[in-house]
Design brief:
9 helices; single chain; 164 residues; mainly alpha; 5% strand; two-stranded antiparallel ribbon
Length: 164
């Protein structure tokens, strides 16, 4: 498995590349993770916040807090980390579709961490075939909103012990 990488936007100077560090401890900044919760706490909040567009830094926050590699992030969100970094530098917001997918992904990780205890354990589960998802890797479904919904439903089944 590829080494996990952490992007540290706070150390960035204008037009400088992001400093990439190996993440030894996923979710080292839980206050950042939970700061997005009000935006996805219910469907109306999620819709409203998505339409306004998230600050591009939210994508980098998700990347560092989720434990995704840059390749996993790019595969899931269909954009490059370099594009996101440029958006952050130019202080741009993300479009509604990417904002929605990010918020749903934050919500998914919130639930996954609640069930599995750590982001690392949840990330490992995402890369393990899931019986309730037709033995597919949950990670492979994260590139669509419907896939995220199916993963959320599977987590609910796991949470309540309904694995049949």
């Amino acid at each position: 498995m590829a080494a996990k990488q952490k992007i540290t936007p706070a150390k960035v100077k204008k037009n400088a590349p992001y400093i990439v560090e190996h993440a030894a401890n996923l979710l080292a900044e839980p206050e950042v993770f939970y700061s997005y919760r009000p935006a996805y706490i219910d469907d109306i909040s999620l819709l409203t916040r998505s339409k306004k567009g998230l600050n591009a830094k939210a994508a980098l926050d998700f990347l560092s807090l989720s434990g995704f590699t840059q390749d996993e992030f790019q595969e899931t969100f269909k954009t490059t980390v370099k594009t996101i970094q440029n958006h952050v530098t130019r202080e741009l917001t993300l479009d509604a579709a990417l904002s929605e997918k990010l918020l749903k992904s934050f919500a998914l990780f919130d639930k996954g961490v609640e069930i599995f205890g750590t982001a690392n354990a949840f990330h490992q589960w995402l890369n393990t075939p899931a019986y309730g998802l037709g033995k597919q890797l949950p990670f492979d479904l994260m590139d669509t909103i419907t896939g995220i919904q199916l993963i959320t439903e599977e987590l609910t089944r796991i949470e309540f012990g309904d694995l049949a």
